[in-house]
Amino acid sequence: MTMGVTDLLAHIPPPAVRRLALRVRPAAQRALRQGHPWLFEQAVIQQPDTPGNPGDLAVIFDDQRRFLAIGLYDPTSLIRVRILQRGAPATINQTWFAAQLAAAAARRAALPGQGTTGYRLLHGENDGLPGLVIDRYDAVLVLKIYTLAWIPHLTTVLAALAEVIPAQAVVLRLSRDLQRQPVWLHGLADGMTLAGDLPDAAVRFHENGLCFEADVLRGQKTGFFFDQRENRARVATLAAGRRTLNVFAYTGGFSLYAASGGAPEVVSLDLSAPALAAAVRNFELNRHLPAVAAATHTVLAADAFDALTHLRQRGQRFDLVIVDPPALAKQESEVNGALRAYRRLTHLALGVLAPAGTLVMASCSSRISAADFYATVEQAAVEAGRPLQPFAHSGHAVDHPIGFAEGAYLKCLFATVR
What we know:
Blueprint: H1 5-10, E1 20-24, H2 26-33, E2 38-40, E3 44-46, E4 57-61, E5 67-73, E6 79-86, H3 94-107, E7 118-123, E8 132-137, E9 140-145, H4 154-164, E10 169-174, H5 176-179, E11 192-196, E12 202-207, E13 210-215, H6 229-238, E14 244-247, H7 253-260, E15 265-270, H8 273-284, H9 290-294, E16 296-301, H10 304-313, E17 318-323, H11 335-351, E18 353-363, H12 370-383, E19 388-394, E20 411-417
Parallel strand pairs: 1-4, 9-10, 14-15, 14-17, 15-16, 17-18
Antiparallel strand pairs: 1-3, 2-6, 4-5, 5-6, 7-8, 8-9, 10-11, 12-13, 18-20, 19-20
């Protein structure tokens, strides 16, 4: 007999009643007082002889044994504690979680009135719940966790979520690291529906009035990239009459916005054929809009670097080129390689950009600073003999707030060729 989700959740061992007492190094004490949401393994100088399990609550004290913070303990991670509350003790329970979720929802309260029913409801550390992301797809919520410490608290979080934003369904997504540690998952799996009923993996939602679908069970991240919403809207204002190329198009977000803004022809380039099939469906969902109906949409399933080279060789030129690659530097050792890749992508994009064309270049790599990213792109353009005139730099939207330095990851450059 197959165990149901309710049974699985009921059989997850709860966090220990006894809280773990930790003492930490002076530098860590300063960081916690300044609001940093992480305590790293090497910062702990004293802890109980018997280590806790993922999800146990850890209380952190300073040198005078005064309370500093309380958070979720994870002995499997270099981030040993993710901070929930600092400054004053608190009871971490359903009421506490509901208050955090309600505050996060209030920050995004204006979005539905702007024709947006798909957005990030909870942005992890930056909304006070480290390692937990919740994306809203209209009536469906997708909860993604990045630390095993959330597993013992899922039932409580779900109850708090039901208080704040009742949903048709709540779907669980797990980071790749978590999927490799099944012993701590207690039967839970990526793509599992935790609550409610999800009749179809492809759910529909609206963003600035445009209709999209997303595969919330198997799609990248939680199925869609909400962080680029405002940059997509800017693209729509630039696209009228411009032949547009969207590189790393995924499911065609930038492409659809370009068409809605009056681009007569849009090419979506991505290595993933299933993602491009979804891009085609997203166009069909919006063919009732005159500008989208008038646009020609072509998909090209290929490696971006190879395809840009071939397009240039064939003499293809575009008035608007958008380059939005996935994260190219997930650890410090990858930074130099990522900067080289951005440089090469800039050269290739300029190779297919028409005279006086507009280039949109984005980076979602948190380890690449905005200054380094912009400097790399602009220097590459000089090397290519096509210097740029930037007219806009953008970062995070309201549903992706920045609560600490490492939380800033999104950079986007809008520029014309001089």
